[in-house]
């Protein structure tokens, strides 16, 4: 039987071991039941949140970057173009339900929750290594557009990297949610485009914008006084995180100690601190993005923090 160049890709995620996650790309026939989709879908929702808004400020310093086998799309609009007006060439597939957000659990290899809900609103994508960057590309934003297929609108749409895909389709490969893939189509041609298989697209890095939201910290399940895991979300600008540092407070007066300790990247956009002694809150967090800009959320996590809760700062990247 001849092999058709129609593919079904699936970005699979696990919140326990992100390094084991792979996006599977499997060839299918032409019976029309699965075209670039596992038709799985998901019904997850965002976790309950508890906000504690406290002060903070920001300042910039140099930050390391992660090397990749291909040139990495730089923050905002600083790309070297292989097309016009800063656009780069890529290929795109899609996975999950046709009108879904990708992963069945509405999560992904970055650790974000409820990506079917605002502000992600299912406009999400896996990125291959030059885009995902071993997790440090999580949360980055890209404009995508397609022109080659008759169903393409040519209109740019913005997607957020929430998952990973290592299948070598192209030097730059976006494995989009069904919603995001269909959004590139002309009106009423969404399904026609989703049935097209692998398509050529153009993309460019753009600043993320979360109007009305501040940088937010989700304390992961399993966290305890000796192990603190924090998911960082909703960063304007670069949208990604390359380093998180933690400052404890004095047990005597609850004031910040003035000492920053680096957290380690756990997986995706989740950072952790492991200690032999109980950590002393409230905690301040310092977040550094890919451009080297730094934001400080002073005592954003209270002393009586609880796992699976969300704590919002009052600070945001400009």
TrEMBL record:
It comes from Zea mays. It is found in: Secreted, Cell wall. One of its GO terms (biological process) is cell wall organization. GO terms for cellular component: extracellular region. This is Expansin-B4. Pfam families: DPBB_1, Expansin_C. Residues 107-213 form the Expansin-like EG45 domain. Residues 226-313 form the Expansin-like CBD domain. The lineage of its organism: Eukaryota, Viridiplantae, Streptophyta, Embryophyta, Tracheophyta. InterPro entries: Expan_Lol_pI, Expansin/allergen_DPBB_dom, Expansin_CBD, Expansin_CBD_sf, LolPI, RlpA-like_DPBB, RlpA-like_sf. Residues 33-83 are annotated as: Disordered. Gene3D superfamilies: Expansin, cellulose-binding-like domain (2.60.40.760), RlpA-like domain (2.40.40.10). Residues 1-32 form the signal peptide. Coiled coil: none annotated. The keyword Chloroplast does not apply.
